[in-house]
Hints:
Blueprint: E1 4-15, E2 20-26, H1 28-33, E3 39-42, E4 54-57, E5 60-63, E6 66-72, H2 76-81, E7 89-96, E8 108-113, H3 118-129, E9 136-141, H4 144-156, E10 162-165, E11 172-173, E12 189-193, H5 196-209, E13 213-216, E14 232-234, E15 240-242, H6 243-246, E16 249-251
Bound molecules: flavin-adenine dinucleotide and FE2/S2 (inorganic) cluster.
Flavin-adenine dinucleotide binds next to strand 4, strand 6 and helix 2.
Amino acid sequence: MPALQEQTCLQSIDQLTEDIFRLTLTAPQIARKAKPGQFVMVKTTAGFDPLLRRPFSIHDRPDKETIVLLFKAIGKGTMLLGAIQAGQAVDLVGPMGNNFHYNGNKRYCLIGGGMGIAPLLFLARQLQEYENVPPSILLGAQTAEELHPLIGDFNVLGCNPQVSTDDGSLGHCGYVSELLPPLLTEVDEVCVCGPTPLMAKVAQLCAVAAIPCQSSLETHMACGLGACLGCTVHGHDATYLHVCKHGPVFDATQIQWVR
Ligand SMILES: Cc1cc2nc3c(=O)[nH]c(=O)nc-3n(C[C@H](O)[C@H](O)[C@H](O)COP(=O)(O)OP(=O)(O)OC[C@H]3O[C@@H](n4cnc5c(N)ncnc54)[C@H](O)[C@@H]3O)c2cc1C
Ligand code: FES
């Protein structure tokens, strides 16, 4: 189904930390079609700088009129987005890309690192509310400050995440992938999003345990349409994959994690 361009309205902007923001947008056309794992391309300014739209996972779809985005301000586009005001129009194209596949007969573990946590709330909501299979959730970030506001969202859904921080300020001290091994005998499938080293490690653990793993990749993107090669990753069998066109969600065995 083709993506839509929609003039959405910003209901609210929440600043969760110094550089992490959550946008709640009235976007009925995109919200009705959205599936967990898909993303939107956001025009971050009414002007032309930056010219290119920026991709963001659909963090949540609390109802059929609303989508929520979660992002860290790391550059020009995201800093402009962090400064917009409630009531302003935001131009989106979406929903784009493929989605996580899930069904009510399987037990899932969702693993998110940093802003890779973004697409997992929508997935957890779908699993919990529509498939009635509460997933196991593992969340990791550098510090407690980054994780605190996000944990609450999963708790509201009835999922109780296990957490890790790089500095040990909350939960396990270390990488979130270190929380996975004890769960590998309890789940049927893993869905992961985050930094490449995290996804590579999770892919390796799942391969050894013979458990399917879906990985959502957040590469640099330019056109978002499969035309510019800006989002290319190496496939396992010497192919090139475009994250915008073939993903962003891949079976982990499709990706050449170590080169
Ligand atoms: C499918 C997809 C979903 C995404 N979902 C989210 C999300 O939910 N929340 C979120 O915070 N981010 C997400 N991202 C990443 C987000 O698109 C970038 O952070 C954003 O485009 C940066 O724009 P900018 O103009 O602020 O930064 P730029 O000015 O373009 O870049 C600033 C700096 O950040 C680096 N950078 C830019 N993009 C990335 C990237 N993708 N990965 C690593 N470094 C990068 C640049 O190299 C540069 O050093 C997603 C990316 C993809 C492809
Ligand atoms: S962003 Fe241009 S090909 Fe994917």
